[in-house]
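> example.struct
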């Protein structure tokens, strides 16, 4: 495995992305504490993203609105606009590409680039060019923090430290050259290391590893044992400056989840939103040329979660998945015959296979029916694509207040324009 002798990677993270996009789009919000919320006109929810001005008062992401108001009485709450964030993401990436090729988009507000010779020699100049280009062509309100290091993992950690550096939140630059390490690492908390979540940190502490310095001194095989897989060993090599390439991931499922608005928290309201979410998931399944053979439904109700799975023939049409949802919903009603308050729902299509690899079930003679419903679904998709919105669907199409069914705010998946139809 190769160990670079100089910095080779840049990691860029936009600061308070959703809130700063709101401020860039609406100058009345600039300089004010802003909290992005799922729905308009209700305090029965949480702040899902906040601006640097709000963070200065102690407001954090995923904080109940009532608590945020206590910390910051002047906070301005704005309902989420996922399509605005998608368009801002695309505009920002376009400007970055004009300065340096993007190696990988890690999330809607994070990306990584490989450095050329000039970028390795003068990373400060590269960071300044990027920030100037974004400020001139997109706006000055959306700022970013940038980290440079020998590999992607270290660059991400440097970026996070750059975000904390200076007198103001974000918009920093941090360079970790190989000759500077491991000193910058040793002052970090275990939780500052990507891949060390709460559960992993507890496991490390139980094993007598309390600091990043303790972790750094371990051997690769010991790290592998602690993680119970090769991930731990890869992390050891990444922390020690090796060029570790993450294995290619494959698509495992298509799904959508949603916090329900107050008026949709009955079983009837939750079912209607589940139908819309599942239809959106099936559309994505078809657009990416997959079939599925399983449906998973889950609900967050008071004091607990409910979930169930159902096997399917290898399908991707709306009729098949919606019929399966009907069957699963009978189980929901049997579990809660008197009804229940549902706060969040999710649907997932899993056990995927590529269209060219589909194998029919010899014991289930339904190919003629499946082909008919696939033609119906393809015709529906064609009409919706022609008009750029949902003009026809299998069953009623009545999005809830606030919309954003299947196109919700997301850090890990970047919605496409079709997600908002």
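> example.seq
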């Amino acid at each position: 495995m190769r160990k670079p002798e100089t910095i080779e990677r840049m990691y860029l993270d936009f600061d308070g992305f959703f809130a700063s996009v709101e401020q860039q789009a609406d100058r009345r919000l600039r300089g004010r504490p802003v909290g992005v919320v799922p729905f308009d006109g209700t305090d029965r929810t949480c702040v899902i993203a906040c601006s640097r001005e709000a963070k200065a008062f102690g407001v954090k992401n995923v904080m109940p609105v009532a608590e945020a108001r206590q910390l910051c009485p002047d906070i301005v709450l704005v309902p989420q606009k996922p399509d605005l964030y998608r368009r801002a993401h695309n505009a920002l990436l376009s400007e970055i590409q004009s300065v340096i090729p993007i190696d990988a988009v890690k999330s809607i507000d994070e990306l990584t680039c490989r450095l050329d010779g000039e970028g390795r020699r003068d990373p400060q100049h590269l960071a300044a060019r990027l920030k100037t280009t974004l400020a001139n062509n997109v706006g000055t309100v959306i700022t970013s923090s940038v980290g440079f290091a020998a590999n992607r993992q270290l660059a991400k950690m440097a970026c996070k430290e750059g975000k904390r550096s200076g007198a103001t939140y974000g918009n920093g630059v941090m360079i970790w050259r190989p000759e500077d390490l491991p000193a910058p690492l040793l002052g970090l908390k275990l939780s500052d290391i990507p891949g060390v979540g709460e559960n992993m940190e507890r496991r490390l502490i139980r094993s007598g590893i309390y600091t990043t310095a303790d972790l750094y001194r371990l051997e690769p095989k010991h790290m592998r044992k602690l993680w119970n897989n090769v991930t731990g060993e890869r992390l050891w090599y990444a922390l020690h400056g090796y060029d570790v390439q993450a294995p290619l991931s494959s698509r495992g499922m298509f799904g959508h989840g949603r916090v329900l608005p107050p008026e949709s928290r009955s079983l009837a309201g939750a079912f209607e939103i589940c139908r819309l979410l599942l239809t959106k998931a099936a559309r994505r399944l078809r657009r990416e040329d997959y079939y599925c053979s399983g449906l998973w439904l889950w609900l967050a109700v008071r004091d607990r979660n409910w979930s169930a799975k159902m096997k399917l023939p290898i399908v991707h049409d709306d009729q098949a998945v919606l019929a399966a949802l009907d069957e699963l919903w009978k189980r929901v009603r049997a579990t809660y015959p008197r009804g229940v308050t549902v706060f969040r729902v999710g649907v997932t299509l899993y056990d995927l296979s590529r269209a060219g690899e589909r194998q029919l079930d010899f014991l289930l003679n339904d190919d003629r029916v499946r082909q008919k419903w696939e033609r119906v679904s393809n015709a529906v998709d064609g009409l919706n694509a022609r008009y750029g919105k949902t003009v026809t669907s299998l069953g009623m199409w009545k999005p809830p207040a606030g919309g954003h069914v299947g196109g919700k705010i997301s850090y890990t998946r970047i919605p496409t324009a079709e997600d908002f139809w």
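> remarks
The mean pLDDT is 90.
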